[in-house]
Design a protein that fits this description.
The chain has two domains: 302 residues, Immunoglobulin-like; 123 residues, Orthogonal Bundle (Cytochrome Bc1 Complex, Chain D, domain 2), CATH 1.10.760.10. α10 crosses α14 and α14 packs across α15. The chain is built from 15 helices and 23 strands. Strands 1, 2, 3, 5, 7 and 11 form a six-stranded mixed beta sheet that branches. It is of the alpha/beta class. Bound molecules: copper (II) ion (CU). Copper (II) ion binds next to loops. It comes from Psychrobacter frigidicola. One of its GO terms (biological process) is denitrification pathway.
């Protein structure tokens, strides 16, 4: 695109009159908005002569009769406004504010986000097919940039971008009619467009079909975006935007709802067994296409690309940059279901990870959990024909030294893939077990991590991890052995864990 040389101009022109600035920036966006003249007219009209917009409005209405006026309910992710229970069209007033604000990107990492409504993603808008929307876009007086909005639900040039172009401390108004039902992305389209989107300026607008959507128990709003920072993932402090990484499409963060952990730990989505869940999932980009997947669930229904086509029984659905999908499923068994971009390094190394916590009764016929665990000997038949004996009873460690030795193979087979054979882990992904202050403070934590799994924020040697360790299915003896091995390896300070201790921890 031809727009990327503009950010350097911004700081220089910022002191000129608002109108000159508007015009200069509009020129930069010629590819998106139609021209400078029109922008000027719009801006002036909004500032000085608001009634002229009312006139247009009443003219529209005289064609189709007066519509009742309703103020839109806007919600922040992951909440979704309530379903529409009207069976008639309305004039829906939407008031949004663009705000530039420093917020948490990850623990210890701040970022200056540009937002609709002060958060990323922007507020969810829910209207009905056939509604007329009166859109008010205000740009907070403290903003440094002008902003606008391009709603993909709009039929009309720029999706509203030209008409909504707004300098700091101003409000624009424009109207549109929602002709097509579907789930649509909205975003800022002010030059440099990529930078406004990369900084968080996107959200979703749902145009419910006239007949409405089917009733479900839970609805959630999830939106993916990619972020580009000067420092690499997790580097502390206030991180500036990195244009080079953005152009080469090499993000440091790929996130659901604007920050690492926005949907994990206390922020996890919730549902009960037997409920139907609908996820409105958008992708703001600016660059990446999402392979959206929920680990352990199958989407019973997907409205492909947020449109009318229903697909059924889907594992992973593509969500293009600037696109959306509606996914629906019924929860059948309790547990943690992990939302990921299945371009999987993004999930485990760049933050694109969320959790849906489902509570309720087990159903062992749908999902049993591990029912058996036994030694597998591919050459077993041959062995038997020679020895012709029953498999030897499982060896039990007779003393601490044996426990350590036996624990090593348990470790190599069950832990090393993540925590590494060296016990040093992988920075930002898997915490170290060597000299881990977290573990050494209380070895029971290791027992618990193995038998119950571990997720949420923990700090290990000053580094924060906010990831997921799945429970490892091992019997009491093996858990005792592996923890004892860990405690006595890599310079750790010793100790022994017994199967009795493990058994007690299972309760
Ligand atoms: Cu913007």
């Amino acid at each position: 695109m031809l727009l990327f040389n503009h950010p350097s101009n911004h700081s220089k022109v910022i002191n000129y009159s608002k109108l000159t600035l508007a015009c200069l920036l509009a020129l930069g966006t010629l590819a998106i908005i139609t021209g400078c003249d029109k922008t000027n007219t719009d801006t002036t009209a909004t500032n000085a002569a608001e009634p002229s917009i009312d006139k247009t409005t009443s003219k529209d209405n005289s064609e189709e009769g007066e519509l009742p006026i309703i103020d839109a309910v806007l919600t922040y992710a992951p909440e979704v406004p309530p379903p529409i229970d009207r069976d008639y069209s309305a004039k829906v007033r939407v008031k949004m504010e663009t705000v530039e604000t420093v917020m948490r990107l990850a623990d210890g990492v701040d970022y200056e986000f540009w937002t609709f409504g002060g958060q990323v993603p922007g507020q969810f808008i829910r209207i009905r097919e056939g509604d007329e929307v009166e859109f008010h876009l205000s740009n907070h007086p403290d903003s440094k940039m002008p902003h606008n909005i391009d709603l993909h639900a709009v039929t009309g040039p720029g999706g509203g971008a030209t008409s909504s172009f707004t300098t700091p401390g101003h409000t624009s108004e424009f109207n549109f009619k929602a002709l097509n039902p579907g789930l649509y992305v909205y975003h800022c389209a002010t030059a440099p467009v990529g930078m406004h989107i990369a900084n968080g300026m996107y959200g979703l607008i749902l145009v419910e079909p006239k007949e409405g959507l089917s009733k479900v128990d839970r609805e959630y709003y999830v939106m993916q975006g990619d972020f580009y920072t000067k420092g690499s993932y997790g580097q502390q402090g206030l991180q500036p935007f990195d244009m080079d990484k953005a152009i080469s499409e090499n993000p440091d963060y790929v996130l659901f709802n604007g920050s690492v952990g926005a949907l994990t730990g206390d922020n996890a989505l919730k549902a009960n067994v037997g409920e139907t869940v609908r996820l409105f999932v958008g992708n703001g980009g600016p660059n990446l296409v999402s392979s959206f997947h929920v680990i352990g669930e199958i989407f019973d229904k997907v409205y492909v690309n947020g449109g009318t086509t229903e697909n059924h029984n889907v594992q992973t659905t593509l969500i293009p940059s600037g696109g959306a999908a509606i996914t629906e499923f019924k929860t059948d068994v309790p547990g943690e279901y992990i939302l990921v971009d299945h371009s999987i390094f993004r999930a485990f190394n760049k933050g694109a990870l969320g959790i849906l916590q489902v509570e309720g009764k087990e159903n062992k016929r749908i999902y049993s959990g591990k029912t058996k665990y036994r030694v597998y000997l591919p050459e077993g038949a041959a062995t038997q024909s020679i020895a012709n004996t029953k498999p030897a009873p499982q060896k039990v460690a007779a003393n601490k030294q044996q426990r350590i030795e036996m624990g090593k193979s348990v470790y190599d087979n069950n832990c090393a893939a993540c925590h590494q054979p060296t016990g040093l882990g992988i920075p930002k992904a898997f915490p170290p077990l060597a000299n881990s202050d977290y573990l050494l403070k209380d070895p029971n934590r290791a027992i618990s991590a193995i038998i119950h799994g571990l997720n949420g924020k923990i700090t290990v040697n000053g580094e924060v991890y906010d990831s997921v360790m799945p429970a490892v299915a091992l019997d009491d003896e093996r858990v005792a052995n592996v923890v004892t091995y860990v405690l006595n390896t890599w310079g750790n300070n010793g100790g022994e864990v017994t199967p009795t201790q493990v058994k007690a921890a299972r309760k």
